[in-house]
Design brief:
alpha+beta; Alpha-Beta Plaits; five-stranded mixed beta sheet; 4 helices; globular
């Protein structure tokens, strides 16, 4: 039997407006309601005015959800860090997990700060094939698998 692949898309973006806890709860509620029936799982982080999100699932569903995110007026400077097929999900049990910046360890915060710097660049970079970015993202995702297992 052939193992099916899952499409993973990871992006960062800057918030255009102040994102209150109520707005975050609303975003998560909508994401969870839309993602589960579409077979999409993932993780959302919000830290210091920046979103970091992992979307995993069937490619058409991931692309449809990401297109809606790009069109969402709450996001600016949307930057795809990684997009491609994987053999397994990183967050198979989360229709949309959430981790706030306060829950991050020092190593995780260091990675987020580096990624946040990318959102602030005037010229968008092509990062999807960068080995340096891939190593950083994979290390970051590995650290968050611990949250997913608890």
């Amino acid at each position: 039997m052939t193992q099916l692949s899952v499409h993973r898309l990871i992006y960062v973006s800057a918030a255009r407006v102040e994102v209150s806890p109520g707005v975050l709860e609303s975003i998560l509620a909508v994401a969870r309601a839309n993602n589960e029936p579409a077979g999409v799982t993932g993780l959302l982080l919000f830290h210091d005015g920046s979103f970091f999100q992992v979307l995993e699932g069937p490619k058409p569903a991931v692309e449809r959800i990401f297109a809606a995110i790009e069109a969402d007026p709450r996001h600016s400077r949307v930057l795809v860090l990684q997009s491609g097929d994987e053999t397994a999900r990183s967050f198979p049990n989360w229709s949309m997990g959430y981790v706030g910046g306060h829950a991050l360890g020092p190593d995780q915060q260091a990675h987020l700060i580096d990624l946040r710097h990318l959102v602030g660049q005037e010229e968008p970079a092509n990062l999807t094939s960068s080995p340096v970015v891939s190593v950083q993202i994979n290390a970051f995702l590995t650290s968050f698998r611990e949250f997913a297992l608890t």
